[in-house]
Design a protein that fits this description.
The chain is α/β, with parallel strands linked by helices and about 160 residues long. It has 2 helices and 8 strands; from the N terminus they run H-E-E-E-E-E-E-E-H-E. A hairpin with a 5-residue loop joins strand 5 and strand 6.
Length: about 160
């Protein structure tokens, strides 16, 4: 009788351990996390193998901005793609660690210096100068620059 209870107890513990291992495996599947313009300043938790997509062109995104990647934790994330129009950035969580992903956005009405000096610069409602034309000041001098940053924790 005592032996039967011991065997039953061992069987129950073995099943519980097997189920716990199976549940952990289900959580280990790589996921894709998509962030947009409203996620500025967030801290994002990822696991190794997860994909992170920052899509600033999606609904609610910041229009008329050309984005560039300023910094990202190279020891933690690997860049896997960047959109043609620099509004979408894709990363793969490659190892554990933390860091910040930062993008800088320049409004599309930034103009070359030559165009500003020649007076052929287009009017920019976001730009410098009294008339709203960046040509009345230095090219792009007062055109606002946006910053997009998130903190990443890969565990």
């Amino acid at each position: 009788m005592r032996t039967a209870r011991s065997c039953l107890l061992i069987l129950v513990l073995a099943l519980a351990a097997a189920c716990a291992g199976h549940a952990g495996a289900a959580q280990a599947r790589p996921q894709t996390i998509v962030l947009g313009a409203t996620d500025i300043g967030r801290t994002i938790g990822l696991h190794v193998g997860d994909r992170l997509v920052i899509d600033l062109a999606a609904a609610g995104g910041i229009s008329r901005v050309e984005w560039s990647l300023v910094v990202y934790p190279k020891q933690v994330l690997r860049v896997t793609g960047q959109g043609v129009n620099s509004e979408r950035f894709e990363f793969l969580a490659s190892s554990t660690g933390t860091g910040q992903v930062a993008l800088a956005g320049r409004y599309g009405c930034d103009i070359p210096q030559a165009a500003a000096e020649s007076g052929s610069a287009p009017r920019c409602p976001l730009g410098a100068g009294e008339s709203g034309n960046p040509a009345s000041g230095a090219a792009g001098a007062a055109v606002p620059v946006r910053r997009y940053a998130i903190d990443v924790q890969v565990g």
